[in-house]
Write a structure and sequence with these properties.
Length: 1154
């Protein structure tokens, strides 16, 4: 085994670093071998620790090379770290030597070297079992000498000081009893403070602050020591650290927390802390909002931690400083922080536990009474000045506890109600009503907060407000009466403005809050309030703030008091709807706007989940509870529809009701989905939308009998419901709205894979005996859509029947092709046939479909492709969907242009669906079919242009192809489409190079390719486009595209492409500046003599591109081009459209600033 000496260690070159602590892993392999040799020699008894120390002293007591001194001490540290047992005498001798070295009474330079290693040796030696606690006194005393008049401590690197603080903290916590007994607390406190006198570094202070907190909290210190400690740390308040933003913020937060903990570590600090902060509050005008915030946060924390006696002693003095800030300051942040402190004091002084002494209970009462009385006096003496700020103070106090609320209400509410009778200014009345609202809001918050409010407190708080209930309701009712009078005067055209009415709007919020207080209002009072609110709603203008606030008030009352909604609000508003509408002499309906407006108000009031009534827990029938208002509203509308169906000429009225149902369902389902009630509802057996599903279908569709062509037997089939009046019929708009309702119900998140409303009302085993009951229309219509689509004679049925399949939620854990879901629906291996039937319906030229029906069927086909993967199904007549489409295209020349146009519309919709779902069976082939149709020489030129424009639909946002309908939109499709348009770009370049035989067709072809290409590029992110194509190729394409004719959408998109290229690749675009200016000014030049070929949107975009050119390349433009550009911009400044003129002014300014 190799032998080593101390000299071997010193020869090993190693640079000392102070940026990381010494640890076992920082040594080289050679160093580890030397350490192991020494440790082994000591453990084997060949040498002792004292002998090793004697050997090493030769090197650590030399002034020749201080680096070697530190290196030798590092060896001593490494050896001691690995020795488990040291004799007590040897250990004591080693500690004394190291302590003497730290004290350095001889002022030897070598003693000041390796201080960090010595400090770490202290910590290492203290962990050995034979360490004598008495030696801790020698260690701590020696460390304190570092801060003597020689100023050695502050000259040490930050990381060394950090280690010293850590070692001191360790000894003071581990050996506090011995140290206090030997040295005394005063000497220890003085030593700590001398070390930290000039400390500024955050890592060091993050050790010092917790140490001060510990000894302040755990040691029995004298007043003089505590005062010294307070002065030592309060000077750091508030914490400010410079440096990197994230690191600075983290350190600031940590240090603020530590410093605040120092403040509350001993009750002695309370008087010093509060007096210090009060002085800052009194001088608030000269401190920043940030410092003010930190002071208020610190005070709030202190009042929570100090004893109630200390807080009570200083509460009034704090109030005297804070009130001036709230009443006089113009800085909102200062006011909010002060209110937070006032509330924190009230919360801290509160004592609801039975064990509290009477004196402690009086602390809060005295504080609240003092503040309340002063607030009352200010309100009475000068309401115009003090009502608003004092109202905020009252709210902060009242919301702190029920006891505080009772005191505030008793002292504040009576003078407030009396003041209502004396003030005359509407602005003052508004402020007074706002204060009442804040008081009621505080009560509601207390009632809702069960953590601080028990049942007894709830009763006491309600009793406090009930004492003044009659006068309070009278005051609010008077405000509502004045509001009604103003609305009446506004309707008659008198000179009042809406602002006069807005002064009384706080009364509406107060009334809504009264409904939330249990047993506060009698049924009579509830009825009178609702009657007034309904009148205001009906009489007020639909667009003003009064109407909006009244609607919100009724909605809040309804959600918290469903019985009031069902018995009072809803019936009263429904009575405002006319029994029927009468057509005018031309057969047209009267203005439906008032009816639609009232229905819209009903929707906004009714379509919200109900909250808990009377603060009870959620009942077992939670779905009925949360759903109560909306179901009541829907049932009333359905009954209204039944009555209207019996009256002639009411289809438009009924359609308006269905539109209201649709809007209400959207609003209710969205709010229910975003709330926590969804899980409660979805676990129950009865779905809340079941009644809507059944009733809306029965009111739209019916079952009729039809003879089979072969067997002559009758077969039930779906038809549009016939109305009692033969001259009336349900129109496409009505059925379209019904279909949208069915879609929302089908895809609602309230459905679950187990409890799914579509599956519930779909029976794939229906037999004729089961279909004889006409009540089964809600089941048959879905069955017939899937199994007997040929029996649907009236195409309007599709407006309703296709939507359950569009919105149905797939079966849980289904595969990508939805095999389980298709089996459950009975369309496994049959989805392709359904798509074929729908396509043939669309292409039936002899029986043309109206646009709404055609779009519904196109959406249906998209769902079959994107959701149900119908491209993999084998068709009944052989082949698959792609084969069927290709065969239609091959035979299309035999049909009319209208047929061909509708065929390509089908193909575009299929293409969009296939790319959305990344259907590899369809994407490339259908894209090729569309690309082939772009050439006007082989297709009708009009059809080619329409196909080119339809490329925009492939990536456009769709109301059907999205996650709401459980379709995964694949991101890969964009990269594939960029690859697929390369051939189109090549075709365009080829046409540009050819000499045309037919110039018109040649130009049409070039336009078609340009339109198709930008139709794809417009919906793809810039970074993908730039990554896929050669930049020069893109520039040429973009500039050529700005000249595209007869398509302003494509022209605008190409201008946007030019703008993107300038923004993303300005260096490359610099050489094309002349061409860019030429193309853009061709667009912007719009005069009577030479009108532009671009619409106003394109002209605005073109001017914006010119601005970018000026900002990026303007300084390099020669003077003639600048002059020409100024002339073109002058023409743009006279454009007929304001947007173009405004953009041109901005562009001229950019040119001017050059």
């Amino acid at each position: 085994m190799a032998t080593y000496t101390i000299q071997d260690w010193l020869i090993e070159e190693k640079r000392l670093t102070f940026d990381k602590p010494t640890n076992r892993d920082c040594y080289s392999e050679h160093e580890k071998a030397i350490i192991a040799f020494v440790v082994g020699a000591i453990q084997d008894g060949k040498i002792t620790v004292n002998l090793f120390l004697q050997d090493i002293r030769v090197y650590i007591e030399s002034d020749l090379d201080l680096i070697k001194v530190s290196r030798a001490l590092t060896l001593l540290l490494a050896v001691c770290e690995r020795i488990k047992i040291i004799q007590e005498n040897d250990l004591h001798y080693l500690v004394d030597y190291l302590a003497e070295r730290i004290r350095n009474e001889t002022n030897s330079s070598y003693n000041n070297a390796g201080i960090r290693e010595v400090i770490l040796l202290f910590r290492t030696l203290s962990k050995i079992n034979s360490f004598n606690p008495e030696d801790a006194c020698s260690i701590i005393s020696s460390i304190f000498t570092l801060a003597d008049s020689r100023h050695r401590f502050m000259d040490l690197p930050d990381v060394v000081r950090q280690d010293i603080y850590a070692v001191v903290e360790n000894f003071l916590k581990e050996y506090s009893h011995v140290l206090i007994q030997s040295l005394g607390t005063s000497k220890i406190v003085d030593g700590i403070l001398e070390l930290a006198t000039f400390e500024k570094k955050a890592p060091c202070l993050l050790i010092v602050f917790p140490l001060i907190s510990h000894i302040s909290r755990s040691w029995n210190l004298g007043d003089s020591d505590l005062e010294k400690l307070f002065k030592s740390f309060i000077r750091y308040f508030p914490i400010k650290i410079s440096g990197l933003q994230n690191d600075s913020m983290r350190l600031s937060m940590e240090m603020s927390d530590c410093l605040t903990d120092c403040l509350v570590s001993n009750d002695f600090y309370a008087s010093h802390t509060f007096s210090n902060f009060i002085a800052s509050l009194d001088d608030h005008s000269s401190i920043s909002a940030t410092v003010m915030h930190e002071i208020c946060v610190a005070i709030s924390y202190c009042v929570k931690k100090y004893s109630k006696e200390k807080v009570a002693l200083w509460s009034i003095r704090l109030w005297n400083s804070l009130k001036l800030i709230i009443w006089e300051s113009q800085i909102e942040d200062h006011i909010e922080d002060s209110l937070l402190v006032i509330q924190s004091i009230a919360i801290s002084l509160g004592c609801n536990e039975p064990s509290c002494e009477k004196e402690q209970k009086n602390f809060l009462a005295n504080y609240i009474m003092e503040v309340s009385n002063e607030c009352r006096d200010q309100i009475v003496n000068s309401p115009q000045k003090y009502l608003t700020p004092t109202g905020r103070i009252i709210y902060s106090l009242a919301s702190s506890s029920t006891h505080a609320f009772k005191v505030v209400v008793t002292s504040i509410l009576p003078p407030l109600l009396a003041l209502w009778k004396t003030i005359t200014l509407a602005s003052e009345k508004k402020m007074l009503l706002s204060v009442i609202t804040l008081i009621l809001k505080a009560l509601i918050e207390l009632l809702d907060n069960k953590e601080i409010t028990n049942d007894i407190d709830t009763v006491e708080a309600i009793k406090a407000i009930s004492t003044f209930q009659e006068r309070l309701i009278e005051t609010l009712s008077n405000a509502v009466v004045e509001l009604k009078q103003i609305i009446q005067e506004l309707s008659t055209g008198k000179g009042l403005s809406i602002k006069n009415a807005s002064h009384f709007l706080p009364a509406l919020e107060s009334l809504a809050l009264l409904f939330r207080i249990p047993s506060c209002l009698t049924r009579v009072e509830q009825g009178m309030i609702v009657q007034d609110l309904n009148k205001i709603l009906v009489k007020s203008s639909k667009d003003d703030i009064i109407h909006r606030e009244t609607t919100t008030t009724l909605q809040k009352i309804s959600t918290y008091r469903p019985t009031v909604f069902a018995d009072m609000i809803l019936p009263s508003l429904l009575d405002e709807l006319p029994e029927s509408v009468i057509p005018d002499f031309d057969g047209e309906m009267v203005n439906m706007q008032p009816i639609a407006s009232l229905l819209n108000d009903l929707v906004n009031i009714s379509s919200h989940p109900c909250y808990r009534e009377l603060n009870t827990d959620v009942p077992e029938d939670a779905n009925i509870y949360w759903y109560r208002n909306f179901k009541c509203f829907v049932d009333h509308l359905f009954r209204k529809m039944d009555k209207l169906f019996l009256i002639k000429g009411q289809v438009s009225y009924v359609t308006a009701i269905v539109a209201a149902l649709l809007k209400g369902l959207k609003l209710f389902d969205r709010e229910l989905e975003s709330s926590h009630t969804v899980k409660t509802i979805s676990n129950l057996v009865i779905l809340p939308y079941e009644s809507i599903w059944i009733q809306i279908i029965r009111k739209s569709l019916s079952l009729n009998m039809k003879n089979k062509s072969i067997s002559k037997t009758e077969k039930r089939f779906l038809s549009i419901r016939e109305l009692p009046n033969k001259d009336d019929s349900l129109d496409a708009l009505f059925l379209y709205l019904v279909g949208k309702i069915i879609l929302l119900v089908s895809r609602s998140k309230l459905n679950t894979p187990i409890n799914n409303i579509v599956f519930r009302f779909y029976n794939q085993s229906l037999i004729e005996e089961n279909m004889k009951d006409a009540n089964q229309v809600e089941e048959l219509y879905l069955y017939q859509q899937i199994h007997e689509p040929d029996l649907i004679d009236n195409p309007l049925v599709y407006l309703v029947s296709v939507y359950p399949l569009i919105g149905v939620q797939p079966v849980k854990d289904d595969d990508r092709n939805l095999t389980k879901t298709k089996s459950r629906l009975g369309i496994n291996q049959n989805a392709g046939n359904l798509a074929v039937v729908a396509i043939l319906r669309i292409l039936d030229i002899e029986n043309l479909l109206i646009p709404r029906v055609r779009v519904a069927l196109l959406h249906y086909i998209q769902i079959l492709v994107a959701k149900f993967r119908c491209s993999i199904d084998e068709l009944q007549d052989g082949g698959n969907l792609l084969y069927f489409i290709e065969s239609l295209v091959k035979k299309s020349h035999e049909n009319s242009p209208q047929y061909v146009m509708q065929l390509y519309q089908v193909i575009v919709y299929i293409a969009a669906a296939s790319f959305t779902s990344y259907d590899t069976n369809l994407m490339r082939p259908v894209f090729r079919l569309l690309s082939d149709a772009l050439d006007p020489e082989t297709h009708d030129s009009n059809i080619s242009t329409l196909v080119a424009q339809s490329f925009r639909l492939i990536l456009a946002k769709s109301e059907i192809l999205n996650e709401k309908n459980y379709i995964q939109v694949r991101a890969l499709r964009k990269g594939l489409l960029l690859d697929l348009i390369r051939p189109l770009m090549a075709q365009y370049r080829r046409h540009c190079e050819l000499i045309p035989q037919n110039p018109n067709l040649h130009q049409n072809a070039k336009n078609n390719y340009l339109i198709a290409i930008i139709g794809i590029l417009r919906n793809i992110e810039a970074y993908l486009v730039l990554d896929k194509f050669d930049l020069e190729e893109l520039v040429i394409l973009a500039l050529e595209g700005t000249n595209v004719s007869d398509d302003v959408i494509a022209k605008a998109e190409y201008i946007k492409l030019v703008r993107m290229l300038i923004s993303e690749r300005p260096k490359h675009m610099e050489k094309h500046v002349d061409k860019i200016i030429e193309r853009m000014t061709e667009r912007t030049h719009n005069t009577l003599e030479t009108p532009s070929d671009a619409n106003f949107e394109c002209r605005i975009l073109a001017v914006d591109v010119l601005r970018l050119v000026i900002e990026n390349f303007g300084s390099d433009l020669p003077l003639p081009k600048r002059v020409k550009l100024i002339g073109e911009l002058a023409i743009a400044k006279d454009d007929c459209h304001a947007g173009v003129r405004q953009a041109a002014v901005q562009c001229m300014l950019a040119l001017f600033y050059l």
